From TrEMBL:
Entry-linked SMART domains: CheW
InterPro entries cross-referenced by the UniProt entry: CheW, CheW-like_dom_sf, CheW-lke_dom
SUPFAM superfamilies per the UniProt record, alphabetical: CheW-like
Species for this entry: Lachnospira eligens
Protein name per Swiss-Prot or TrEMBL: Chemotaxis protein CheW
Gene Ontology CC terms, in alphabetical order: cytosol
Gene Ontology biological process terms from the UniProt entry: chemotaxis; signal transduction
Pfam families on file: CheW
Domain annotation CheW-like: ranges: 4-146
């Protein structure tokens, strides 16, 4: 369970989510995602962030909501560092705020929503009257997916000039 004293809160469709700010490397707007055909299930492409190739992770595909629900936003990318594994560029609709959450406003994710496939749904918080689902980014990828993404990323970044060509 992550410690959410200050999560980065973002919107995906009409829902708000948060990730632990301690795992956020940066928040990028208008970053170019190079689509990768036939990539792993949730990897929609790659980004070149200051010479480093980082996989772009589709939260919509992970959550099974592969639609835009007609909400206009600022299309942002939240770069998270999963300790010991890999960096991911989370595709989000809009970063809303870096919030302060009172510990009393955070409750466990209801058992109805927690399954083996949704372990990344950590807790729920009430932030300014809005429910925010707090994500455990360390559980977004299965162990096998994390190993594959790590190998892919290492191969891309070790390739002579690979990052410069993206």
């Amino acid at each position: 369970m992550a410690d959410y004293i200050k999560p980065v809160i973002f919107r995906l469709g009409n829902q708000q989510f948060g990730v632990d700010i301690n795992l956020v490397q940066s928040i990028e707007r208008e970053i170019n995602i190079v689509r990768v055909p036939n990539a792993m299930k949730y990897i929609s492409g790659i980004v070149n962030l200051r010479g480093e190739v980082i996989p772009a992770f589709s939260l919509r595909k992970k959550f099974g909501t592969d639609d835009n629900v007609g909400v206009i936003g600022e299309d942002s990318t939240v770069i998270v560092n999963i300790p010991g594994v890999v960096k991911l560029a989370l595709e989000v609709d809009e970063v809303l705020e870096i919030g302060d959450i009172d510990a009393q406003s955070i409750v466990q994710m209801p058992a109805l929503a927690r399954t083996v496939d949704t372990e990344y749904l950590d807790r729920v918080a009430n932030v300014n009257g809005q429910l925010v689902i707090l994500l455990d980014v360390e559980k977004l990828l299965t162990q096998s997916e994390a190993e594959n993404v790590k190998k892919f990323t290492e191969d891309m970044n070790d390739n002579d000039g690979g990052a410069a060509n993206v």
